Each structure stands twice: as C-alpha cells, then as structure tokens.
Amino acid sequence: MPTQSPVAPGPRNPVGSRAGAASGPQPESRADLHEQVPGEVTVVDPAMVKRAVSAAALGNAMEWFDFGVYSYIAVTLGHVFFPSGNPTAQLLSTFGAFAAAFLVRPIGGMVFGPLGDRIGRQKVLAITMIMMAVGTFAIGLIPSYASIGVGAPILLLVARLVQGFSTGGEYGGASTFIAEYAPDKKRGFLGSWLEFGTLAGYVGGAGLVTLMTALLSTEDLHSWGWRIPFLIAGPMGIIGLYLRMRLEETPAFAQLEKEARTKEKERRDAEKRIGIREMIFGQWRAMLLCIGLVLVFNVTDYMLLSYMPSYLTSELKYDETHGLLVVLAVMVLMMGVQPFAGRLSDRFGRRPVIAAGCLGFLVLSVPALLLIRQGSLLAIALGMGALGLLLVAFTSTMPATLPALFPTKVRYGSLSIGFNVSVSLFGGTTPLVVTALIGATGNKMMPAYYMMAAAVIGGIAVLLMSESARKPLPGSPPAVETEAEAAALRTAAGRPVTAGSAA
Q1: Virtual CA dihedral for 317, 319, 321, 326, nearest 10 degrees?
Q2: Global pTM?
C-alpha cells in the first residue's frame, strides 16, 4: 500500500508510508509507516490492491458457486442422500441441510470477526477460504445413502455446517479487506468487484448444473455427475488460498498493531481483546444501521436470485428451465453494470445510490411483478431486468458502505456479526416467509409488498447514515493513489513536503 521513499535504498514496501521529516529520506519499518500523525497519508500500491480485490472476490465467488450448485441440484441430492420415496420429503430434507448453514453463519461471524480484529484480516480470510473449499469438496466425496445408509445425510449436514460456519467470517472480512486497501476515491468501484465475484460464482454454479442436466442422463447424474460441481471447489480453493497468502496485512490493521505496541500494556490488551459485547452494544447505532442496510440488500437479493425461479414455476406455472435461464441472464446483466454503479457511488456518494435503489423498489416492485405475472418471456425478462438493475444499487455500494460504519479496531467483528445476523433473520428466510404469506393470504403480489417493506427499512437506514464516499475509513489515515495527491493532503494538513521526504 503506501510506498517507501523513492530515493531511499532498498525495495519498495507495499504496506505503508507516512510523510517524512524535512531532514531527508530515511528507511522506515512497517511499524513506523503506520504511526498515525497529522498529515499522514497512505499511498496505495496498485499491484497489491489488484491482488487484494481478486483474492476477496474469488472467496465470495466460491461461496455463491456452492450456493448456485446446491440450489439447482437439490432434487438430485434428495435422491442421493434422502431416498424416502417421497419427492417432497426428499426436497425438504435437502433444503433443511441447506438452511442449516444459515443457522451457524452468525456463530461463524462471532468467532471469525473478533479473530480478524485480533490477529489480522489476511490470516482469518485464509482460514475461511480453506474451510469453504474443504466443506464444498467434501460433499463431492460423500458416499450415497445406498452405500452407507444414514451416515450419508449426516456427513452432508456436517459439510454444510462447515460451509456455513466459514461463510460467517467471509463477507465481513472480504469487504473489510478491500475497503482498507482501496484509495478513498475508488473504494466504491473496487468494492463493487466483491459482488461481481458473487454474481460470477452464482452464474457459474447454476450454469454448470444446467449444462450437466442437459448433457447427462438422469441415471448418470444420480450416479456420479452430481459430484463434479462440488469437486471443482478443490482447485478453486487452492487458487484462492494462494492469492490470499500472497497478500500482506491491510494498512489500517497494521496501524492498529503499531498503536497497540507503543501504548501501555493495559490499553493494548483492551484493544486486542475486545469482547463481543463491545462489538455489538459499543457500536449499537452503527450495528442497527448495518442490519437495516443488509436487510434491504439481502431481502431483494434473495427474492430475485433465489425465490423468483420457484415463484415462476410454482405460482405462475412457468417452465422451470426457461425461468432459470432468465435469472441467469439477469445476473449477467448485473455483472456488466456493477463496476459502473460502483464508480457512480464514488462520484455522487453512497447515500444517493442506495436511496435510489430503495425508492426504485418502493415504486417499481408492483409494476415489475405485474409484468412478470403476464407470463410472456419478454414481460418476464423486462420485469426481472428492472428488479436486477435496482438491486445493483445495493450490490455495487454495500461492500464500501458497510465497513465504513465501524472503526478499525472492531470493523471485522462488528460487521461480520451485524451482516450475518441480518442475513440469517431476514435474507435467508425470504423465500420461506413469502411462500407462507402467499399461502396464508392467497395474494400472489406478496413478493412485491415484501420488497417494498424492506425498501422502507433500508430508506430509513440511509437517512440516518453518514456519507462515507471519498472519505477515510474511521480510524484510518487518508488513502490516495499518487504521491502528488499525498503531498497535497500533507500540505493542507500543515506538514509541507520537502524534496527528500518519504511518500
């Protein structure tokens, strides 16, 4: 990230630097580079930023690759692991194992989040990557129910719990990692690639299952074909782990370590061992804002990408394959728009972009669903496409918005807890709740009303949050791309830069 003085001997230090003294350039240690002083500025290393974004996005892609595979191969998994003879019971059992992962996500957040604030983001993200890859790869190795009996579904459940536990530390850590590496003026653009990875993973997983279903016979799919998507996670995990192990710790966390080393032991211990209570109740306002923002983000996300294919099939009697292809096309559209929306949030601010998404869902959810209910392919594509473009207002901004709610010393932990609690309570339950509401009321417009309610909550959160675009993260110095920008900031802060100062 910030670099060593260009005239100092030795290789470039990709971690950090600060304004040097007027006496000329001196080689500095990593600890010195993160000592927070007035006029300190972080100058990012572009190569390190690219590696950080790639490594974080790949982890998210792995998570959603598994999500897409498991969702769309659920019927086959029911035959392999729950051969009750009742198709409905098989599917319910399969999705029960799927839902179990959501139950342990908050626990994973409570474990990995504080750990990331204590030992570092990079180390914990490497651990979560290993666990995710092992859990997914293990599913592909589990013998069928016909081979080992009840042990098969038990092993499937264990593998899902490992996946869910690791996922609890993934999003909060990945978004924190990118946010702490990115220059302030590009945090939205770089953060948007995290959700680009999400969409790419989901498209890859669902697309692979669709291709296999078309190419393999039912017998081959049940016998061995279903294992292929899960076994692919092994090589993906190795690549992801390699990328993450090449990264150095973020400048913001390294700065916190420096403060802990230079202050009295009592303060250091307090900072390094912050408990769950402080992460939640000590940040209660930011935590509530996080939960509200994640609620509108995930309710609309799960509604569009997870529930709508089932809605098209079960409620509108639409062909299942065509419904899936429409959703995949919408996700490809979102991938294309994602980076541009991230740039918009850097230019105009996070609040206007998120507010536009909330207002759009409030006004357009009913018209979009009415279009979808027309039943023609064009009408469904237009309705789904409109909802997908509105969803980009959240997917492109949240990776930069959420980390900025919390200070460095609790960022990973508080974000992981708030994010996963909200996802587990509201996002992951969206298909179940909407299905129950339709069953109870008979009103097939319930998906639109549910998204509108989420938009109201998200809108309130936007009104109460502070703008974070183009500003340093709480507890971190400004981060810029060039030494000229750093010099200008230092001068503005009253630390004029001489010809020999470090930058």
Answers
A1: -80
A2: 0.80
